[in-house]
Please model this.
Amino acid sequence: MNSDLSEILEEALSNGQLQVSTHENISELVNSSDNPRYEAVVKELADGEYWNELNDRFFKKLAFGTGGLRGRTIGELVTPSEMGDAKEGERPEYPCVGTNALNYYNITRATLGLVRHLIASHQGDSKPSLALARDSRHFGKEFAECVTKVATENGVDVHLFTEPRSTPHLSFAVRHLGASAGIVLTASHNPPHDNGYKVYGNDGAQIVEPDASQIIALVNEISGESYDPVPEADRGTVNEIKDELDEPYLERLETLLLDPELVKAQSDLKIVFTNIHGTGGTISPALLRRLGFQCDTVAEQDTQDGWFPTVKSPNPENAEALGMAIAQAEATNADLVIGTDPDCDRMAVAVRDADGKMTLLTGNQIGSLMGYYRLKAFTDQGILNDSNKDHAVLVKTFVTTELQTAIADSFGVGVVNTLTGFKYIGAKLRKYESQLPGDVRANYRQLSDAETRDLRLKHSKFFVFGGEESYGYLGADFLRDKDGNGAVAMFAEVCAYAASLGITAVELLDQLFREHGVFMEGQHAEVLSGADGAEKIQKLAKDYSENPPKEVDGSAVTNFRDFANCDYTDEEGDAIPKEKMVFVDLADGRAFAVRPSGTEPKIKFYIYVRPSDGDAVGDGDLAAAKVAAQESFDSLKQWIVADMKARLGS
Model:
């Protein structure tokens, strides 16, 4: 590092303008690399005295969370060296410099760690291999080229999708190709300035322990981007994938349809689909049309564009993101709006109610409807019956609605709760597969979904449906992550089923409320960005753990679960990994959970209003029960926000 810059940074450190960790990480990055751009960017920020920007970029190193690596690729302040030859309004030529950013430095280190893990654990004469995909985000193509170069130069074959593809497509590809691992470059529904790096095991699920810690340990041993490539003869090869895996994936997705004749009978159901400038348009519209649905897309949002120019946020959970699709549905009198996020692992919907008004459903409500329909269809068809339903299971996260538990109970099917993050649902699917006889497991991936279902009903557990409240769903185990493409097909069938009864999906949800009581859920997410924000998030998580409430909004606390510091097992007796999350149950049936996000600078509060006795609600009482639930929810949310601010001292 240039001595003048070193003196400036030392002075900023002594003045308290730079954090100690920031100074250490800047020194490590600049001194361990021969890339002159790194020092140039640091100097530009230091000369401008942009200490907050430097702290945000360098106060820590990226680590695997619930979604792998995720960080900014475009800084809040973009320096001239990062802008390069790009013109105003264009994407910078180079990604954000920093140890807390997603850039070539962190991509290289992560890939080196993964590759070394694969080589150390690989068995057989062939080379280990990884499948690699990216969505439509900025720097995806360049990062994919970086991953491919690092992997092949270190002895790993790469199956490279040459064009953007969805996260579930990558999960499918890992299993279909028999790859040793997978990587998808995506930041899901984050803002345009972010990108990410998600790692998958050979089963097509996101990595969990102990592999995650082993890879992280290997990454942490690496200082800088330099490495010595293996000899030419030992290097990996690149297998480019264009559209060869689209048809096999579509064929498996078609098997999610449980009653094709019902869908044919409702062929006048009109759907407007939007991929919000992401990857969903590659598969979902084609799938819907193959299944017999009428599907139009939002032309202005069909283009894959990392700026996501027509929305404030590419998150389909937000009503605004579906605004153009809803307007088109109103203009064309369509029945259903479906949107998927940039990497198409999440899906949101708007459906018409009994009065014809477009109504947004929550992730909890969407999952409950799909779980109910699949349980009912499998039961009506005799696939689930009294002799085998104890071998069927619905898997959800702890923070997902208990309405799904009530529904599963009514069918006599068990429920397993996992921590937040679909990787934990994927881990359950790995367990169920591992419980099959050895001769069956050898050919498992070549079997049809009906064949694997029969085997699981006999030998282990048949996964009926899985999901999380954050708009992620899965209906079969031929891939091992939440699947927006599959969810599109499953929910369209739910709407066809409701139409066959002469009602809407909203009215079908009301039927579930009448049978099981009104369940209402929602969130408050406090965004706390940068180094200061990260410190506040950890302070809050610690304070809730050490000082749990005794009474909340006038109701006594009846149960307090601290997942970071206590040992718990799930419904199958499996140990639950430690996670910074607390769950608070109240005497009046309400509850809330608190956890730091693993992928965004947020602390999340999950809020629940549940029927205290689970009694059915009469037709005339449903409206009143909904109003009471909303008032109870609003009151609890107000208390939680006030309590959070008091804990922060603000």
In short: The chain has a mean pLDDT of 94. The chain has three domains: 60-244, 247-516, 517-648.
